[in-house]
Amino acid sequence: MNIGVLGTGIVGQTIGSKLVQLGHHVMMGSRDAANPKAIRWAKAEGPRASFGTFANAASFGEIIFNCTLGSVSLDALRQAGAANMKGKVLIDTSNPLDYSTDAWSLTVSNTDSLGEQIQREFPNTLVVKSLNTMNCNIMVDPRKLSEKTDVFVSGNDVEAKATVVMILRDWFGWRSVIDLGDITTSRGVEMFVLLWHNLRNVVSSPRFNIRIVS
Ligand SMILES: NC(=O)c1ccc[n+]([C@@H]2O[C@H](COP(=O)([O-])OP(=O)(O)OC[C@H]3O[C@@H](n4cnc5c(N)ncnc54)[C@H](OP(=O)(O)O)[C@@H]3O)[C@@H](O)[C@H]2O)c1
Fold it and tell me: How far is the CA of 194 from the centre of ligand 1 (A)?
């Protein structure tokens, strides 16, 4: 498939590389059509990897990953363009962390979430929140962990979520995918990032994840 990855950070690079290794064609999007990180990434990944603006990558992708800084994801997606994302599944990996203060906090929480804000602003895009509850190395390779753990999906469109579940299971190797419900369930998984950061201070590695036991 042709896949657009919006974001040149570690998440965009890790997901983009995994998708290229799986045989897909991936365009990495940035504010700058010639972002040095995107150029280096594409060069390292070979002919199936390319780069461009957020709009170029969104237009290129049959499926789009949002891997942009959560506090400004809406701006990045506006640059990607509603028309370029119309009717497409957007997998939103972002967390709305507020880096303007020393304490960990979110730019939106409790009664709203970034996932919902994105879905409201782009009603013709099929937003599925997923993968934001773990380190990016685990996102694309859950078998790095010693035991089976869980990943979540949140979204309004049942078929879009089924597509994302297929990607998680068949492409990334997840064995347990929990459908939390509609896009409002993004609130919980986004607020979890605060606990994730507390855990990061006491767990020796970022490679850990949630496992639901009942
Ligand atoms: N790191 C992890 O393992 C992890 C795990 C779970 C979730 N997440 C979430 O995944 C997302 C990506 O994280 P990351 O660490 O890879 O990268 P990041 O540093 O959070 O975001 C990098 C991307 O954000 C874009 N960006 C920055 N400022 C912008 C602005 N003012 N307007 C538009 N776009 C802007 C950058 O654009 P340019 O390319 O133009 O510079 C770049 O593509 C974040 O929301 C993060 O919370 C990360």
Answer: 17
Minimal-distance CA residue to ligand 1 atom 30: 72
Indicate which residue's Cα is closest to atom 31 of ligand 1: 72
Report the predicted TM-score, pTM, of the whole model to 2 decimal places: 0.98
Pairwise CA distance, residues 89 & 167, whole Å: 11
| Rounded percentage of the chain residues whose pLDDT exceeds 90 | 98
Q: CB neighbours of 21 closer than 8 A, spacing ≥ 6?
A: none
The whole-angstrom separation of Cα 210 and Cα 61 is: 30
Walk across the sheet containing 126-130 and list its strands. Answer: 49-53, 25-30, 2-6, 63-66, 89-92, 126-130, 151-155, 177-181
Ligand 1 atom closest to the CA of 8, numbered from 1: 43
